[in-house]
Structure formats: C-alpha cells, structure tokens
Design brief:
By secondary structure, the protein is an alpha/beta fold. It has 2 domains: about 50-125, no CATH class; about 145-455, CofD-like domains (Rossmann fold). Helix content is about 50%, strand content about 10%. It has helices spanning about 5-25, 25-40, 50-75, 85-90, 95-125, 135-145, 155-165, 185-190, 200-205, 215-220, 235-245, 250-260, 290-295, 315-325, 335-345, 345-355, 375-390, 415-420, 440-455; strands at about 150-155, 170-175, 265, 275-280, 285-290, 300-310, 325-330, 360, 395-400, 425-430. Strands 3-2-1-7-8-9-10 form a 7-stranded parallel β-sheet, sandwiched between helices. It has a 3-stranded antiparallel β-sheet with strand order 5-4-6. Helix 7 (about 155-165) packs across helix 19 (about 440-455), helix 11 crosses helix 12 and helix 14 (about 315-325) runs parallel beside helix 16 (about 345-355). The protein is elongated and about 115 Å long. It starts with a helix and ends in a 5-residue tail after the last helix.
Amino acid sequence: MYDINYVDDCVESCYYFIAMQIRKPNLFTRLWNNIRRESQWFRPGLGYKRWLVLVFIGTTLLGVGLALIVLDVYRNAPETWWLPAITTLSLRFLDRPIRVVIFGGIGVILVLIGIWGSNRSLLLPFLPPGKPLIEALNTYHRRDRGPRIVVLGGGHGLASLLRGLKEYSHNITAIVTVSDDGGSSGELRKKVGILPPGDIRNCLAALSNNESLLSQVFQYRFAAGAGLEGHSLGNLFITALSEITGSFEEAVAESGRVLAVYGRVLPSTLSDVRLLADLLDEDGKMTHVSGETYIRETKGAIQRLWLDPASTPAFPPAISAVLSADLIIIGPGSLYTSLLPNLLVKDLAEAVRVSPAMKFFICNVATERGETDHFSCLDHVRSVEKHVGQGIFDLVISNNFYDGDLGQDVEWVQVDRDLLRYTTVYSANLIDPEYPWRHDSKRLAKTAMDLFYERTGPLVD
C-alpha cells in the first residue's frame, strides 16, 4: 500500500515543477529575445554597419583565397588515408547549394560573434556601469549628430543650461563674458594679468563628460592657505596653462580636453575689458560706476551700460560659431553683469542679429537685487533687444510656477499680458525644487530642445 500523504507530496511537487517551467521563458523565447536585442546593431545611424560590411568583404576575399588552396590540394593530391576525411568534412555528399548555405551561415555567425566579443572586450572598461554597449554607442552618435547650439550668458544660469543641453548634442558652443573683476577671477586678473577664468571654468565643468569627481576637483575652492584662500583650483589650473601655452584661448581648449568636454567654451573677446554703468538712485542722482563688482554692490537702477574700450573686437571663433549655428540661446544669467556684456561686443551682437539660426531667449526665474529689481519678463526682453535689435527672438521661454521661498528683496519674474502681445512666449514649470530661484537644468534643456525640434523637425545629415 502507498502512503497517501507521500503520493500527495509527489503530485504537489510535480505541479510546482511544471508551474515553474511554464513561468520561466523557454529556450526559444530566450533565443528570440537575444536575437531582438543584438539586432539593434543594425539600426540606422550607429555608424557601425559600414565597417561590418568592410569586414565581410575582407573575410570573403580571404575565404576565396583559402578555398582555392583547398581545392588545389583536394583535386591534385594523391589517394591517401586523409582524403576521405576531407571529402566527409566538405559535405560532398550534399548538393552544392545546401553546402553553400551551411558553410556561409556558420561563417557569418562566427564573424558576428568574433566582432561582438572583441568590441565588448575593448570598450567594456570605458562604459558606464550597467549601461549596455549598444545603448552607449547609440547615445554617442545621437548627440554627435545633434544641432549646433550657441549659448550666450554667464554665471550659474549658463552652467545649469549647459549641464542639461549636453544630453542632446555634442555641438555646443558657450560664449562667456570676460568682464568679471571680483573674487578669485578678479584677483588673478589684477595680479597675473590673465582674463577672468571663473565663468569659463563653470561652463567647462558643466559640459564635462566626467562630472562625478574630476570636475568637482576642478571646482574646488581653497578655504585656507597662504595666497590660496578663496581661489578655485580650476582658475589656478587655467592660469598655469595660460603661462605654459602662451595664450588664454589655448589654455581653455586644453582644460576642455582634460575634463573630456564635448563642445567648446569661448570668451566673447580676448581684450582686457571693463564694464561701466550709469546708475540712478532713489533721489534722482546719477552715479557713474566702473567694474562689475561695484555695479552689483551700488544701489540704483541701471540706466546705461557699456564696455571700456567700446570698440572691443569679438573673438573670431565666437563669431563663426554664431553664424553657423542652428539654435542660438540667450540667457539665463545675470542680465547686466553676465548676459549683456557679451552683446556689448558690437561684432558679436551683429553676428547674432544676422545669423539664420533660430533664436530663443530664456528669461530668469527671479529678479536680482541691485540689477533687475521689480523687472518683468518683458523688461528682460527689451533690455536685450536694445543691443541686438527688436523682434529677433523666435521664442521667449519663461517660468510660470511661482511657489517657493526666494529670500528677501527677490521677486518672481512673471509673464504679463504686454509680453504676450509683444512676442511668442512659452511658459512652463522650470524651477529647481531645491533652489527655486534657479532653473532646473533637465527641465529647461528638454523644454528648449522640444520647442526647437517642434519648429524645425529632426536634423538630417
């Protein structure tokens, strides 16, 4: 007699085994999934298939040469013990078309496996953890074919935008003002005679392909040390490279290579310029102020802004980038001390005006004390248009989410009805939840690129 409990346990185990086998994908399912995954190598735009075809042609020619040798041995060799073995291995007992399919199929499979394995072995050390090779390759080529984007601005606003834009294109040029005379940049400018590297350093770090550690070191600011307190390591690095290479622009380019930057950061001019302004205080008294730092610190509404010398020539590569751009973005950034100084370089402002590129203006999220108190979005737009001409912007992008603590004497920059009648406006929630007075880099970049592609369509090589 069988133990009924033992039989029930056996039946239950069988059911459990069958259920687990049903839940697991079978061999054919796994094989099909692998084929679908690896077939992505043949998607258009990867720049990979052309080299695969070249490998196939070379392999075919090599196979033809080896086949001629084998045929010569096969036909002319005397009758020996190994001749039947060659006859069997060559599948002579099958029809020739069948043999062609068998040997050709095995050859193609072996070539694909060999190429895939060698590529994976070579590139695996350079891939981000957990990111498949095909995804990394597709991302690289998509960005490499991205639109030519030129961004004019400065400060944290420009760096934040660049940090988001680099996910969409490698063809980014940031044009940065060199009128800064405060902090570490100001000290180096006075004592060494170098152009201020601060804003350029921020942009290089934002565009870096390795923001995890190396760019943090580049941004490191010394808190103590004889002669080092307040200085940024990146500023000192660019200064040292300027001494070694003999030119500021070459130092910036070499710094970009060190940080694995895709794109370029260019000064608006190589001239030693100073920013000047006329300010009107509450008593109606006009004050003349020299220097970006003093303009920020002096109370009063800015009435006039200019560079000394006024006839400052633009950096030629910056003009070339503007004229060949697909998209020009002005802003965000401090309106009078970061953004407008670029446009005070007359050649650069004229290049922006005549460029066939689509032009976007990104308005700041909040006002700045001493610069744009009580400014609306329309006030920002008109201030820029005084230097580049009216009606040049295809679109103004602004924030419409006004929830967060901005601090004392700071207000939201809001869109009013006058602006909606004045130009085309797109508004969305663009703020950084942690720092509501700043833009969120991912939201801002995605909004700008979606609006660009909506108007132009995907770019074709």
